[in-house]
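Dear support,

We are seeing what looks like truncated structure output for some complexes. This example has two components. We would appreciate it if you could run it in full and send us the complete token output so we can diff it against ours.
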Amino acid sequence: MIASLFMSDIAIKIEELGKLYRLGEIGTGTLTHDLNRWWARLRGQEDPFAKIGESNDRTVKGQSDYVWSLKDVNFEVKQGEVLGIIGRNGAGKSTLLKILSKVTAPTTGRIKIKGRIASLLEVGTGFHPELTGRENIYLNGAILGMSKPEIHSKFDEIVDFSGVERYIDTPVKRYSSGMYVRLAFAVAAFLEPEILIIDEVLAVGDADFQKKCLGRMKDVSVNDGRTVLFVSHDLNAVSQLCTHGIIMKHGTVEYDGAMKETVARYLNHDQVSPSYVNSIEKDSSEIYIDEIHVRNTKGEVSASFQYDEAIIIDFKFHASETSINKGRDIFVTILDGRKRPVFSCETRIEKSHYSLVIEANTLVRGDYSLYAFVNLPKIAQLDVVEDVCNFKVIDAGSIMSKHGEHDYGVVFGRYNWL
Amino acid sequence: MDGNNCPQTRLLDLGLKDLWRYRDLVLLFVRRDFVSTYKQTILGPIWFFVQPLLTTLTFIIIFGNVAKLSTDGLPMLVFYLSGITIWNYFAQSLTATSTVFRDNAHIFGKVYFPRLTMPLAIVISNLVRFGTQFTLFIVVWGYYLIFSDKVQPNWLIVLTPLLVVIMALLSLGLGMTFSALTTKYRDLAILLTFGVQLLMYATPVIYPLSSLPIAYRWLILANPMTSIVETFRYAFLGSGTFSWGGLGYSLLISLLVLLLGTIIFNKVQKSFTDTV
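Here is the complete output from our reference environment:
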């Protein structure tokens, strides 16, 4: 089996993987369960508690104390591929990574791995506060699987990358938390395994350092051709780094495909909707907004857009022959993720249907929504809708995308360097 | 970390090859143990000496003068110190290894490395501690050797390294068994702390084996630590008992316990993060 694996270019192969967890307190009852289990296994029967395990949906109160945190997970990762794993909290991402990094064993199924794995489920694992930066580099490196000569040869690079050279012989308990994290990440950044597993470690440090980390990870995957598995909530980081993606939901793989489609699909299945439909009865002698849909250029309702894709916002009004000529305006404000106005626009309502086209290369990556109202200029705002039609702009290729999470504004400026 | 992660492994897959690859880590853990224990203490490693000396002093007062237990005609200081030096190594290694999983749950839950490195490092770092306490014993023993004729060593002194190895194996094996089982049943941790204390009284540390009635001697001899303490005393001080059979018995038990411990430890390490 292993021999055949070596013939192919598959680095990780996961088959029928499942992980059963027991909920609640471990105390009385555990021993009886254990004995029952052991007795069943002795007689060659199935685990009596595994059967009643349920799929992992946190929101539904289950019948059983056992839950499948992962169930029937199958996928493959090719050599040199950068796989992004996305999914909501509790979808089983972390459990999957734990099993992949051998921290815990699966309940069912198997994993075949070709090559040396290093996993970063956390930076600075095993750092000891009393030891100096230098000592911790060696200790942490060894914990992550590097040999002493290996660490020795990379020592200067690690110190350089971390930027804490001055404090290298000071116990790390005297470090600021920023320095601590920098040093910890630096050790990890210079690991040279064939397969690297990373869990949201980028959510640390200041924007500058995050940028540096992202750059280093890109280096590792693209230039060195290593296989990388990356779990993150940061869809921008994921789409920048990864080529292949999977969506986890309730402990199973919901989608497996190219990263761009994966992200789009993930966003479209999000609960926030890119549509608004009026649901309350309103004065039919006045114009009001009936429906708003955010669509892509193909006319499909969509919640996610590439930065270089036009965004079309369709407005449908409830209007009668008489109300349409009353001189009402539609006023629309685009809000960013922090609900700050990005820009506004208006037009006189003279028909019941309008499309507002936001040109490609306008909005930078991030979350957006709409604030709109029918305006009776200087007198009243009729039919106000606030913070509706959520959509997201993904940026994996613009000239600004390399700046990661740094706040470089909300729109791409129109400018020239002369 | 090469290879596969499956629900079950073969029982005797001890992962020794993996362990060898991580040998640097064992040494780094040993170093960490030292630095972290004695950093920010004024006396530093001097504590190695203070602790056995104070214990010996207590024993001299309580067991020697108040309870008036026999020391086989040996000077009390060297009699008790010999027992304590040996016993300390066993007891400290055992208690430290028995909490390996619990103490390192946060590291074990985040990154894989052969878990065996941890108990191994503890046993080795205690070896260094034993070394210093042994030096203390040698100084005291040397004093009696020169200035008194009650201490009569013999060639069995050469067995000392063997005694230490047997103790290391025994404490490692027992410690691993307990650490593995305590991940699920914390009761055992409580049992162990006073169990070790009680076991000391079932070992000829504060009394010589010869002071026991013959009828009960087998009970104490069933304890694998008995032959070790007795052999050590016999070799250095010239009193006590020695038999190859007893020593062989200790070695055999230690090896069995070690094998059992390693098997249980390896089994538990695969999934303990779920229960700890």
